[in-house]
Amino acid sequence: MPRIVRGGLIQATSTHDGDAPLAEIKKAMIEKHIAMTEDAAKQGVQVLCYQEIFYGPYFCAEQNIRWYETAERIPDGPTIQLMCETAKRLGMVLVVPIYEVDLPGVYYNTAAVIDADGKYLGKYRKHHIPHCQPGFWEKFYFKPGNLGYPVFETAAGKIGVYICYDRHFPEGARCLGLNGAEIVFNPSATVAGLSEYLWKLEQPAHAVANQYYVGAINRVGVEAPWKIGEFYGQSYFCDPRGQMLKVASRDQDELIVADMDLDAIVDVRNTWQFFRDRRPESYGAISSTDH
Known about the structure:
Largest sheet: 6 strands, mixed
Number of domains: 1
CATH superfamily: Carbon-nitrogen hydrolase
Number of helices: 8
């Protein structure tokens, strides 16, 4: 019997301009995502991922300490506690990206993974932090991740997470494969222009090189007051052969749903023996600090 898992991705516009009251922004975005999560449950989704820092706009378009107030503890903060309750109520695995405060003044871009019984399993902290181009001032907000590349055993399979800018780095994607990931989610916030042509190139390449499924999520819309560009949506699932299973629209709130046969991973790996034929003893330059 094929081991079929139904996955879902939510891409969404921001409900408020970035200069609205922070508590109002967060409340509205959480309510929007809860409603879409309930719709996912009605469609039989077993594992669902939200977009990068889902409960607000992409505030890295400016450098303002105001946004530090939106960070929460994981798992003890109110948003992750609510999502644990939601996961249990709906019987769904949730991947929930939020802004994390670890210590006073120490913040991470993090995704919590919650099992279908509501149990918090752990978190992934974004490793690669950009600080480039007008509007991507992430080093002002985030410390680089320090928890490695964990893979979580869930009711919907072995789940890994990569976040946004991470997708440009194949090394972590390979680590997730070696750690046993069957599905890797990449919640993102990326605008039209420089990196758009890479959106459907890099992550299917990771899926092929590491022979797992990828769920890539991007938000939609133009966010005021910054207006750094159009978040162009087009969230998608692709399979271990790099084939698109489902692609979302460019400009609308949307839940996309796809069925993934996790047993197909074995078939692909038995055909393309990339893990057998890799030569880690020859790759020392990759981890050298001399470059």
